[in-house]
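Open question from group meeting: does this chain pack into something compact, or does most of it stay loose? Before anyone orders reagents, we agreed to write out a predicted structure and look at it together. Recording both the input and the output here so the notebook holds the full record.
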Amino acid sequence: MINTDLHLKPNEDGTFTLIKSFVLDGIKVPKNFKTNGADIPRIFWSICPPNNPKYLKAVVIHDYMTSLSNDTYDFKNANLIFRKNMTENTTAGKLTAELFYYGVEVYRFLKYNILCKF
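Structure tokens returned:
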């Protein structure tokens, strides 16, 4: 049976651990995967909390995919799937989906075009 429900256990360090494997859009995240939720600057938490159920499934898939990534192509692919999941598989809304997508794209640009050069 495919589990499309997200079952998380909070950890003392502010992260969460999947207590059951989880599948969304054909991507399976294994049991015991650790996520920190969305990396949203604290100043924006009142309007976009990092662990909002509206978009947490898409965030967990993105965290998992980027944890397996080792180059800019992998991150770009993970970001595109994140955008698709935010748009099609959450109740976050188009504006939130686009803001999150461009946020992860800026991070990818900074990581691979600036930070990796040092």
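Observations to bring back to the group:
DSSP finds three helices and five strands in the chain.
Residues 37-117 form one domain.
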